[in-house]
Structure to design on (451 residues):
């Protein structure tokens, strides 16, 4: 359905195959969030996984004793920027879910500050997602979600909940904050699942 | 815990063909672009849209822009600031002219929006805080408030380089003169109007505290501007006692 806009030639003639459709390569790290940046001290931070039968909880110190992984990955924001080859350190969701039993298929991620985003559990396991606390060799800045954020690089970046505080298992794929505000329930950048 | 607020489901959005009705200089670096958008369902004050441009070889570029207008109808007004190294904004500001066509997707966003109180009563006071071109969605909100003749107290604190860089100056003045309570205060970062002794410089915490509705009045606060501006202002608002959930932010990325 696309048609030519008179006079527009574009500048980024090199089409990088790592860029999903509609994305533009950036080298800085723009911020998207709906409210003020929460300031969360690691002394107060905790992370929980809540299921239909109970809750698993880690303090910051306990979290740091888990197996930590280095991750290099591309990230794609729904506002059309992508950043390639970003480096992170964090704990795999496979590690966190290793001894969590649940019959529910969906996850609601909860953040300090009150925001939420929904993800199918399948999209978080098998090496696909982390709770990240370092970016580019430094502790994660508060404005980028520090002390810890979810990292789900194969989905649009709003799914990578900043200031994450816990995951709640749920039986159905209920929309989280941004999803209620018009963003797609799933969010695959390669399919341009941006909005409803 | 759940901090998700009860929100109305947004209408389904889609791509639309837009024809440029008028484009004119808004400031030395920005253009006001009026579009006639085929099938546009109308939009709330504060929403944004995506603009898609297509080159002859099929290359496309898509960017998000706040909408300066609101309400029913197929007319949509944008105000686009030229980013020096931008790929899309210099084209929109300098090359686009009446009769050109492009594609838009929207309306988008259901959070950074304002609706007049449904019962016609007075809602929570509203404080708008803009940095530079971040004023665009706030102009839409201020004009919706003025057009509704709504009794809710409104204030706008607008940080801008010089008087020449003010977006929608006439509209803001009209809103301030109208029956709906609305006050505008400028913070000039480079040059104040001739003949005034207004201080010049970046906004400070003290200037913010003096220029916004106090936390004791529990205003809803909309902050829009560059990431650095929004980070600073929102942090100070929290320190000044404003509640986290009363502050809505829209950040313009550095790209």
């Amino acid at each position: 359905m696309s048609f030519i806009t008179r006079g527009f030639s574009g500048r980024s003639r090199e089409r990088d195959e790592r860029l999903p459709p509609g994305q533009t390569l950036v080298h800085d790290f723009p911020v998207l969030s709906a409210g003020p940046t929460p300031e969360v001290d690691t002394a107060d931070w905790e992370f929980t996984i809540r299921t239909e039968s109970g809750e698993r909880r880690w303090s910051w110190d306990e979290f740091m004793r888990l197996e930590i992984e280095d991750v290099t990955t591309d990230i794609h924001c729904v506002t059309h920027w992508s950043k390639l080859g970003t480096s992170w350190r964090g704990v795999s969701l496979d590690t966190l879910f290793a001894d969590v039993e649940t019959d529910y298929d969906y996850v609601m991620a909860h953040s300090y500050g009150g925001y939420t985003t929904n993800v199918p559990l399948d999209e978080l396991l098998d090496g696909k997602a982390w709770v990240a606390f370092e970016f580019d060799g430094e502790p994660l800045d508060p404005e980028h979600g520090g002390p810890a954020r979810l990292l789900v690089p194969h989905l649009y970046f709003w799914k990578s909940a900043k200031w994450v505080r816990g995951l709640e298992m749920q039986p159905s794929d209920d929309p989280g904050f941004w999803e209620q505000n018009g963003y797609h329930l799933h969010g695959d950048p390669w399919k341009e699942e941006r909005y409803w | 815990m759940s901090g998700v607020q009860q929100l109305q489901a947004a209408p389904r959005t889609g791509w639309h063909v837009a024809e440029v009705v008028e484009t004119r200089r808004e400031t030395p670096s920005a253009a006001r672009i009026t579009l006639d958008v085929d099938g546009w369902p109308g939009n709330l004050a504060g929403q944004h849209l995506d603009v898609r441009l297509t080159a002859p070889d099929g290359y496309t570029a898509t960017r998000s822009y706040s909408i300066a207008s609101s309400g029913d109808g197929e007319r949509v007004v944008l105000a686009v600031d030229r980013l020096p190294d931008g790929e899309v904004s210099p084209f929109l500001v300098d090359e686009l002219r009446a009769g050109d066509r492009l594609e838009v997707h929207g309306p988008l966003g259901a959070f950074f929006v304002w609706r007049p109180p449904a019962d016609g009563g007075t809602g929570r006071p509203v404080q708008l805080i803009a940095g530079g071109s971040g004023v665009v969605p706030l102009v839409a909100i201020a004009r919706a408030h003025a057009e509704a003749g709504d009794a809710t107290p409104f204030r706008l604190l607008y940080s801008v380089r010089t008087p020449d860089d003010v977006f929608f100056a006439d509209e803001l003045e009209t809103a301030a003169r109208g029956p709906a309570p609305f006050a505008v205060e400028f913070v000039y970062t480079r040059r104040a109007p001739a003949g005034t002794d207004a201080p010049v410089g970046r906004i400070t915490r003290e200037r913010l505290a003096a220029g916004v509705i106090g936390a004791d009045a529990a205003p809803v606060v909309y902050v829009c501007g560059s990431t650095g501006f929004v980070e600073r202002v929102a942090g100070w608002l929290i320190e000044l006692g404003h509640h986290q959930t009363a502050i809505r932010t829209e950040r313009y990325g550095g790209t």
